[in-house]
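Bug report

Summary: structure tokens for maltose alpha-D-glucosyltransferase differ between web form and batch submission.
Environment: batch mode, default settings.
Steps: 1) Submit the sequence below via batch. 2) Compare with the web form result.

Sequence submitted:
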Amino acid sequence: MSWYHNAVFYQALVGSFKADGDKEVGTLRGVIDKLDYLQWLGVDCLWLSPFYASPLRDDGYDIADYYSIHPDYGTMEDFEELIAQLHRRGMRIMTDLALNHTSSDHPWFQASRTDPTGPYGDFYVWGDDPERYPEIRVIFTDVETSNWTWDDQRGQYYFHRFYSHQPDLNYDNPAVQEEVFKILSFWMDKGLDGLRLDAIAYLFERDGLGGESLPETIEFVEKIRSFMDTHYPDAVLIAEANQPPAETMQFYGKGERFHMVFNFPVMPRLYQALALADATPVYSILDELPALPDGCQWGTFLRNHDELTLEMVDDDVRELMYEAFLPDDEMRAHVGIARRLMPLMNGDRRKVELMFSLLMTLPGAPFIYYGDEIGMLDDTTLPDRYAVRTPMQWDDSEHSGFSTKAPSRLPVVGGTSVAAQLDDATSLLNTVRSMIAERHAHPDLGTAPCEPVETGEEAVLGYQRGDLLCLHNFSDRSIDLGPVELGPYGYAWLPA
Ligand code: GLC
């Protein structure tokens, strides 16, 4: 078993977590200020979303310089200090790298536009035919209608999976591949414990194919892994690959690709089961996913900084999910729902706890999205996915203790805070903290197979994980199972 099998991960966005002093956006120093809190909660590994130099047109996933930190967030020294302080506490840190594309502000792209025969001329995917690769889907359906955008300067189109200001790097160019290893070394040498590789299924394009999880992409993933194994054998690589189940498995291979992959197949099934008061969708997806190769682990999650994605579910399921969780079209982002966990659960604390219990006991290591542990609300008037990225609420002071000044990027939503829940043993925050402690007390949950248990009740999901029998009631009815009675949306972890 490796450290990540049993680690509890916590995702924070630097700009939204905590500002130091009177800064108007969150900072790395702010994160350092809150490490006591994360340690108290029981977090083992902090995951920071991109904090690099960026025009922030995609909240930092549009990187303009892979080697520097956005000045709003602080300095390289602050980052080094953050790593040191985490490690001193016995905690770990992973960061996020978007390697599929850069910002159009990146000097490579600027050079590529102006100097087609120069060293960066072939760094991006240029072409004369905007109809090429018709099989490749548009992902950001709210704003883009094509994966090609015309560039006047170069007199050609460039290819992009996401926003038109995020040109895709050309992985057929060995010089691009070399840059990736330089970037990896630079950040890993700072002492990181892991990396999330963003949008990793999309590196290559080939005529006639959908351009996702291509053999060339998988081969490059194997190169990254063997590089990591040689130089940073303790670090974990986690894939963001939002693909159908069988394709998702390709990112593990036989264990020679990623150590971890986010469990996109299971995530929407949990919400679907709640909407239907029926555990069947969860049983079926667990059945469909094969056991993982040695050394591998799922990254289990309920929410993250993106929309609750529904790209990979069948049309009828998507419709059902929109009906159940999208009362207002304003809350939709691309092919999904931009809402936080508590509002998705209609403010019903019992459902939120049920979801946290699933997060802690299903196969995988749990990833908690900042703020969900206090049931933070969202602001659905904000565009794109910003509804779920508002400042963390620390206390009841003005601006919720995020800063002494009004935050300049996103407003504070308000309604609850860490301080308001800290001393209340029955609060959601303390319940989540106890669940994390329970999870740590059962290390079997890191690797034990998940054996489905027939409960005789459509609404109740049962599975055995090592020495625990886990029961989850997806309905609003009390259900008597004989040895145990589950209240509405009740859950139990029993000795097996
Ligand atoms: C990933 C990120 C998302 C971003 C996209 C493009 O899916 O999670 O936030 O917008 O990549 O970089």
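Above is the batch result. After comparison, the two runs are identical; trailing whitespace caused the diff. Residues 46 and 93 are 5 Å apart (CA to CA). The first helix runs from residue 14 to 17.
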